[in-house]
Specification:
two-stranded antiparallel ribbon, five-stranded antiparallel β-sheet
């Protein structure tokens, strides 16, 4: 799934006139790795995102300066065989003429929004985003700071510092080249640039989020929770969870916060399946144990698991209703659930 830091090489700053020729370099799951930050130490600044709509921003820095700084940083790290191998792999990619560019572009939106309040919206959310990206820029720091901590880096952070030898040719989100109008009278191409998913994710080509007002919300992932109303209890429970999982996972193709909406709905759907299955299993165990010596005319205690399941299903329907409502407002709703697909924050 998504929730990654993406590093690209570009020849023009996003949002400025010129040809946006974007080349994939690196991505990292669930964090911004040290390597990405070190590479951005060449005159880092904020710029418009090449993937997501405003107010989302990206970081950009000088390519050659960043690579030079990274070489110095690699030399300051503990020189184990693994560090040397990973450093060689990283520099081979970064020096490849077909992948290098004038600037390094770091897209951190999926990581930055993990820190935001799920309930913030409108101007408050935009202000929080602006502050978060400013803090992200501050995290880049300068090369001298990174060099000072290189020799004492923790062993568990060495992969993050060297890229772990993983430099895919195609990232999960990869904007295709798009020509930006050079001046008045030049007609712009229609629509946002498509992006290509990493083949390992087995997802179809996806698009960045469309303009606000017609953007996907992920509400459908919560809406399918009402399949629990199907008058076949066991089948309905299982079908509800599986459909919420499938629809929730399909939301990964959209921009933040939709993937988080889908993930939370999928987590809740799977939680509903697990709890329902345990309660129904408990019912049949009690039914067997308490009737093996003869039928019982009393509903309780045999019916205790069924009563709990009925109450739990009512709670499930309420949660799905809240999830749909929040999603339509652009909010991420994260009820307590088993985190099968990750945590309950935004992507």
């Amino acid at each position: 799934m998504a929730n990654r830091s993406y590093l690209y090489a570009v020849d023009e700053v996003p949002g400025q006139p010129g040809a946006a020729n974007v080349r994939a370099l690196s991505e990292w799951n669930w964090d911004v790795p040290i390597l990405h930050r070190v590479l951005l130490t060449g005159s880092p600044r904020l710029c418009p995102s090449s993937i997501w709509d405003p107010p989302v921003q990206a970081l950009i820095g000088d390519y050659d300066t960043g690579v030079t700084h990274l070489e110095r940083y690699f030399a300051a790290l503990p020189q184990t065989d693994e560090v040397q191998a990973n450093a060689a792999a990283a520099l081979a990619v970064l020096r490849d003429p077909s992948r290098r560019g004038r600037y390094l572009l770091l897209e951190t939106a999926e990581i930055v929004t993990l820190t935001l309040d799920d309930d913030s919206q409108g101007e408050a959310r935009e202000a929080a985003l602006a502050e978060a990206f400013t803090m992200e820029l501050a995290e880049v720091g300068d090369i001298d700071g990174w060099l000072r901590q290189a020799s004492t880096i923790r062993p568990e952070d060495l992969d993050s510092a060297t890229g772990g030898g993983h430099w895919p040719a195609v990232l999960y989100y990869e904007p295709r080249p798009q020509v930006t109008p050079a001046g008045p009278g030049v007609e712009a191409p229609a629509g946002p640039p498509p992006v290509t998913p990493n083949a390992e994710d087995q997802t179809p080509p996806v698009m960045p989020p469309v303009p606000y007002g017609v953007a996907p919300t992920g509400a459908a992932a919560w809406g399918f929770g009402f399949l629990a109303l199907i008058p076949f209890p066991v089948l309905g429970s299982i079908m509800t969870g599986l459909v919420m999982l499938l629809v929730g996972r399909s939301q990964r193709q959209h921009g933040p916060p939709v993937p988080a909406v889908g993930r939370n709905a999928a987590n809740w759907g799977l939680t509903y399946v697990v709890v329902s299955s345990l309660l129904w299993a408990g019912h049949f165990v009690l039914l067997y144990q308490l009737t093996k010596d003869g039928p019982s005319s009393d509903f309780y205690p045999i019916g205790i698991p069924l009563t709990i399941w009925a109450v739990f299903t009512l709670v499930h329907l309420i949660i799905c209703g809240v999830g749909v409502s929040r999603a339509k407002k652009g909010q991420v709703f994260g009820p307590p659930s088993i985190p099968f697909l990750g945590n309950r924050r935004t992507p």
